[in-house]
Amino acid sequence: MKKYSIGNNSKIWSKMVGADGYLALHGGGHKNENQTPFSSFSLDLSWEKIPNAKSYAVIVEDFDAAAVIGFSFIHWIAVNIKTNHIAENQSYLDHNKWLESKQSAYSENLLWQGHNSSVNKTLVANNKTNKDLGGILPEAFTSTSLENSLMYFGCYPPNADHTYTVVVYGLDVDASELTYHKNHRTQKYHLNKPYYVGDFMQAIHKHVVGKHTLHFKYKKVG
Question: What parts of the sequence cross the membrane (predicted)?
Fold first, then answer.
């Protein structure tokens, strides 16, 4: 079996990923450009257009996190991507525009972003000194508010350099046509309001017409 390659390729690439396959420091915990509780400067992405795609979706995941926390870490999920390019720091910028709008739903001109793994409201009992925070991750990896988990969570490998996986999905529908169900109920929900990765996967799975994958590395923090 051919081993996957690290770094930019002919199908998908980022200016923030160097020739050595490593993401620039400001894409993670080594340099917090936005001065947010966790690094939130998302990488730019460009890719070859996927035939028959009307829109795109993206997920960034750290499978190496399983050695640290027992499962992979979702760093970013987003839909409503209308071209084959995402600008650098677009996650943070669009997140702020949404907060400033004070609307519960995302507008058509923004990325529709879901919760990353730092989400602080979960069914798991509180296990932290700060009793206002839920979830099972350490406090350093838990958002201080529910809204703050709705953008890119910068790379933060605490034990060793990690490899991160970016998948861009080409979809045969616009984001407004993506729907999912909760708890097997008949009511449909849309991704124009905050959602989780399970909702994301459920909504896109019948609409994927192709995908591009990029693997990059980030240096250990601490």
Answer: none
As a whole number of angstroms, the distance between CA 138 and CA 183 comes to 28
Task: Please report, for the domain that includes residue 197, its CATH number.
Answer: 3.90.280.10
The structure's pTM equals 0.91
The residue assigned the tokens 């795109």 is 56
Burial 146-184 (b: 16+ CB within 10 A, else e): eebbbbbbbbbbeeeebebbbebbbbebebeebebeeee
Q: Where are the beta strands (DSSP E) in the chain?
A: 12-13, 45-47, 55-62, 73-81, 85-86, 112-113, 162-171, 179-181, 188-190, 208-218
Query: Strand pairing partners for 113?
Result: 78
Please give the single-letter amino acid code of residue 172.
D
pLDDT in tens, 58-105: 999 999 999 988 889 999 999 999 999 999 999 999 999 999 999 999
Contact 58, 169 (CB under 8 A): yes
Nearest Cα to 191, choosing from 213, 212, 207? 207
SS3 of 141-205: the string is: HCCCCCHHHCCCCCECCCCCCEEEEEEEEEECCCHHHCEEECCCCCCEEECCCCCCHHHHHHHHC
Could you tell me if residue 5 is inside a domain? Answer: no
Dihedral sign computed on CA atoms, order 134, 140, 141, 144: positive
DSSP 3-state assignment of 98?
A: helix
